[in-house]
Every structure is written in structure tokens, then in C-alpha cells.
Amino acid sequence: MAMSLIELSGLTTYPVKSAAGIGLHQAQVTSRGLLHDRRWMVCDRNGKFLTQRKLPKMALIQVTVDETLHLSIAGVPDSSLELPAVPATAQLLHVNVWGDACTAWSMGDKAAQWLHHFLGVDAQLVYMPDSTHRPVDHGRFETPNSFSDAYPFLLISEASLADLNGRLEQPVPMNRFRPNLVVRGCEPFAEDTWKQIKIGDILFDVAKSCSRCSIPGVEQSTGEQGKEPLKTLATYRRWDHAIWFGQNLIANGEGTLAVGDTVEILA
């Protein structure tokens, strides 16, 4: 029997950590992840990162980026903020992401005031310049990361989500899990067994399963926190004191990905 074709069916970049993602048909792969992915981050006045874990309404922050970073609040007219994507002046700040101390550039008072008005907490927006080296959480010090939790890419198969949704009273969309790469054509949780894959012309190492926090419980269209799908996932995807869904990847090279690219399982 012929093997089914596995292909890339979704691409998403998340320019601001924990804000809404941008769905793409084609995306540039850089050493830090998809172009623009998590190069901006919201943090408190002490430089500690802030996410939907504590502020689920961050899901409502809509983002577009080119030479300008444009922020707005879903469903709120006249809420837009435009800033130069890269600050003209490098005002250095020390920030912390899961214990990783690194240097960032402030996006300025205007962004801080906008975030305070929406989130109700003292917050600031920062940018990771190319000069900042934050290594991935996999013993590969030479591989840089952005402000993502630990790895540059997250992959989930459509079949794994379908398996979960078959167990839920109310199905959830893929954006609850915030993957960069979505694939179709494989069995549920086949990605758990992959060690190395090739998507288009780019080779990826499958570094580690993704342990899930509370964010999949946030409805991304409303910013409201709920118990599902984590409650159900815990009944069959819980081990080593964590809930697992998706795989973290590291790219061995740069290039371009496009929806429809073939996924080859090399190991």
C-alpha cells in the first residue's frame, strides 16, 4: 500500500510573544524561527516577560509588521498603534524569559502607555536585535532563539487536533496551541515519533515534545480562560508531570516554506 503524502498545511508567525498570530501562505525561515516570529515581547517594568498565562486578554492584540509594527485590539475601533518596527534609537533593557537574561531594545513610552491602557498593568514592549544571542533550550549554544519559550518552531498535525476534538464536547481550533507549522496526511500523534524531517528544502531536527501551559485554555477570539481542552488532554496526554501536545523543532538552514510543501520523514 502506498504511503500517504504528508504536507505542510499551515504557517503562522507570532511577531509579538503571546499576541495574535499572522497566518501566511509562504514564510521565510531564519535561524531564529519564521521571519519576525517573537522578535517583540511584552514585559513588566522589571523586564520579566508577560504572556496569556497571566493576561489572557493579550490574545486580542492584533499585529501586522513590515517596516512598521502595527498593533490594534480585536473588536475595538480606534485602538491602533503604529511604531517603527525597529527602534531608531537603541535604548538597552535587560529582560528575562524563563530564566534567560538577555538584552533588548525598548519600543518606547508610546507603546508602554498603549499596553498599560489595554492590559491595566505597567508593561513595556521590547525588541530583540540581531546582536542578542539567546540560545535554544537544547544544548546547542550556537543556535539562536527569539523570545519564544524555548525553541524556534512548534509543529502540530491536523490529525492530532482531530483526535483531541473527537473527545471534546466543543471542538477547539488549532490557534489554541499556537503552532508555527501545521501538517496533514499523517496519523494522530505521528509527529511524536519523528526525529528529523524535511519540509520543502529545509531540514529540521525534532528536538522535544511541547509541554503545555494554561494558554491552550484561552479562547483566542475572546481572551477568555477556560478548562478545556487541557482537562481532556490530561486524561490521555499526561506523563512526567506535564501535558504534551506538539513537537519543538530546530531548523538546520534557512530558506522559504510554503503551504503545500511536502514533508519527508527522514528519521
Automatic annotation (TrEMBL):
It holds the Pfam family MOSC. It comes from the Bacteria. One of its GO terms (molecular function) is molybdenum ion binding. The lineage of its organism: Bacteria, Bacillati, Cyanobacteriota, Adonisia, Adonisia turfae. PANTHER family: MITOCHONDRIAL AMIDOXIME REDUCING COMPONENT 1, MOLYBDOPTERIN COFACTOR SULFURASE MOSC. This is MOSC domain-containing protein. Residues 128-266 form the MOSC domain. Coiled coil: none annotated. PROSITE patterns: MOSC. InterPro entries: MoCF_Sase_C, MOCOS_middle, Pyrv_Knase-like_insert_dom_sf.
